[in-house]
């Protein structure tokens, strides 16, 4: 890095990193094309410096790294009780940088020597912080991390492996092999052992200490073919029986086939062609997911992986299968990094990536498998170091994002989803007809009707009796407050202008079948829900006759600052709320069926705070209907919703709303 680059970065990238909240986000500096790589490099060097300081404080050899105040999970710790996931997830990015950049001194240490120290000590059973081997009876976290160890080792190449002694290479091989004992072939984890095996097979051609299992690797690849079969258009389901379509299609299913191709593609040309063809098909629609400010619609689990979703885009470009311009990719990368950074993804004080999306965001964005090292999965996006500074990615003019060019509604037929963008506001929304979580534990992260780049959702993951109803329909027992929600849908279909999903739930002993139809026009959403109630079982008739069931439906969540209250407007059958700080606006109309419309700022009697992914407080327009009869019945609830970060005038909104209500009658 030259002096000019350093000065640019010191004045811009680090300043951008001080923005503490999505609620107070400011416009990031706009740099000339030639300086974009320098800005991106500074993000990396900032994160790396924090990691090195924390790792050095944990272990003199950089073998392990406990990040300050971080979550520790037994399965993510060494036998000595220290975190190894933070180190494994930094390795690929450090290897990319060390393999191509002349600058090796970072934070006063030689990066190449740091990487060598990790490979010499982490896999040495005699070292006090040896990473330990996984149990041979069930899948473990070490299998996931072994893929990252393998990716970095392959990227550094034979020259690096040659710096290790024969015994040290044998230690690395033994540890990698210990992580390929229990096969996992019904989800994305098969990619981890496939890359592990591929790396050892490749290195075995030079070093006798390495040995891989080709049959195991091919079985992994065949299993991934099964997960791709029922989706098409480049998408995989994260389960052979369920329809799990989420961001894992970016940060595992999208990039690991291309990491595999990097390592072993030339040895298995047929598989290489198949995987790269599928990846190219997936990449075709990826630009539509990015909003004008670089945001993406937050949806699903593992959102702490942040900008990792850029990794397949960069790898695809590196391997010549990116089906768009270099300038478009650079704009996506720059804007997405800026969006996450300004949201507060990096904790400058503690020198680490946060375990929340923002300083004020809900800790329930995390999952039970995530520890303090897991957010560093985001580092996979730094594969861009493999692309030379003279490449068009860094020199060609940036190209506008699709949403900056015009409105669009893109249907992806295989997984039955729609991605819609609005040029006037820059907002992108993601709607799915048949998405499902792998487990009911992830309920609130998968059961929304739509997800927006501008309105992050609410989650109460650890409360199984109550649920948030922003962008969802929830049935609630009026006496106990216990909620029944959509979790696993029964069927779904794409419509000309939206989606239709059929789902079932049960409340007070009564089964309920719901057909939800979501239709999109611009930034309006028309929703219709047909609820059919089954008769209560004989043993439940008396209780059911006395029960009051509430049907509750909500708008998007309007994010608010700590002391902020929403501005409110209302009229007959409609309510509007606006944030005075962000100027984002929500409007909802109860078209038919609902009895009441109001604003809620919590989903429990005590209005438990801290439920939004990004903001400390939020508000939701709530529509409700009380159902008192225990007899079998059917009702229809119809509503209209408008949500925009840059809204039209209220007169325009109301005029268009009335036209749409009349159309759908």
Describe this entry's structure for a reader.
The chain is of the alpha+beta class. The protein contains 18 helices and 22 strands. It has helices at 3-16, 36-58, 85-88, 91-100, 111-121, 141-161, 166-178, 190-203, 214-229, 248-251, 256-264, 269-285, 311-318, 326-343, 392-395, 402-405, 541-546, 650-664, and strands at residues 105-106, 109-110, 346-347, 352-353, 408-412, 417-422, 427-432, 451-452, 473-477, 483-484, 491-494, 498-507, 510-521, 524-533, 549-554, 558-560, 567-571, 574-578, 585-592, 596-600, 617-627, 634-644. The strands form five sheets. It has an eight-stranded antiparallel β-sheet with strand order 11-12-13-14-22-19-18-17, covered by helices on one side. Strands 9, 10, 15, 16, 20 and 21 form a six-stranded antiparallel β-sheet that branches. Helix 1 packs across helix 2 (36-58) and helix 4 packs parallel to helix 6 (141-161). The protein is globular and about 75 Å long. 55% of the residues are buried.
